[in-house]
What we know:
The structure holds two protein chains of two kinds.
Chain A: H1 2-54, H2 57-68, E1 71-74, E2 80-84, E3 87-92, E4 99-111, H3 115-128, E5 132-137, E6 141-151, H4 159-201
Helix pairs in contact in A: 2-4, 3-4
Chain B: H1 2-7, E1 13-14, E2 20-24, E3 27-32, E4 39-51, H2 55-68, E5 72-78, E6 83-93, H3 101-130
Antiparallel strand pairs in B: 1-2, 2-3, 3-4, 4-6, 5-6
Helix pairs in contact in B: 2-3
Amino acid sequence: MMKIILVILVVLVSGLLVLLLIEARRIKKSTKLTDESLKTLDLKTEKQESPSKCGCVSEILLSVLDQMGCQYRRDEEGRFIIKYQGEYFKVCTENKCLFLDIWQASCYTGSLDESDMLADVINTVNVNVYPKVLSVITDENVQLYIKTNVLLSAEVPNKELFLSGVFKSFITTTRYLLNTIEEKRLSLELNKVGNTSNYHLN
Amino acid sequence: MLETLRSMCCKPTVDEDKDICFDYQDGHFVMNASDTALLTTVWFYLFFSVPTEELGIVQRVVNEANSACSTKVVYNVDMKRKCIDLHIKNEFIFSSAIFKPEVYVSTMLDECLKAGNYFVKCYDRVKREMI
């Protein structure tokens, strides 16, 4: 009887030992898996970070601005406000887009009576310059803005030279725009004077 | 640039002013590209014409199209024909180092076609609003 009980006990204990061994192996395997998945996660994290390290347009822009020695800050909507040669530029970037939208705040404000003349001037300027001039007509006045969009990818050669050229083109466009407005205004006034004198002569 | 245009099956030719002329989709384009300049200018001339009486509408729609599109819409008034001719100008950086240049150049040309379509749609809308 004692022998039978002893055999049963031995069987139970060995069964228990086998179960414990299986459980220990399972735990070991799951730990190994967790380690591996952590490694994979690490790799994923690295992979996700790598494009932003070298390809994101915002980061390319930041490095170019640093090389150009430009002052900049970001507004609440994430747009860059850049100061170049005393002028402020607003630059919008999108992560998946390689193009930058560059704006210059109102460079001229005219009266509503001038809107036809300004539309004519804008067309002349847009034919001859690189950035484009746009108008916004409000209830009180006409405001003129300058805008362009440029490619800024890693392959663009001489990025600092190119971007400073773009900013300079805004400055020359403003000058050209103001000169053209002045010329147009003068020619309109001369026409008026001419018409009046013709009227008097007649 | 010529190589890129050839790879796009555009059959470019060079005129006496050294401008590159070619057809792409529905349009005839004239391009000013040089080996020394970083910027390339492409013109899509005469994509639309309207009578001179509609100068006000044209000016309004040109501004709208220029705000919405990446290219520039410009016009000239032809007093002899009594019409306003509309053109599209696109200036972009081009270098042989650019990844997939044919995709990039075709995107730049597509932008011209898109701006043309946008202008015509806006013009029709404004005309309908006025009736």
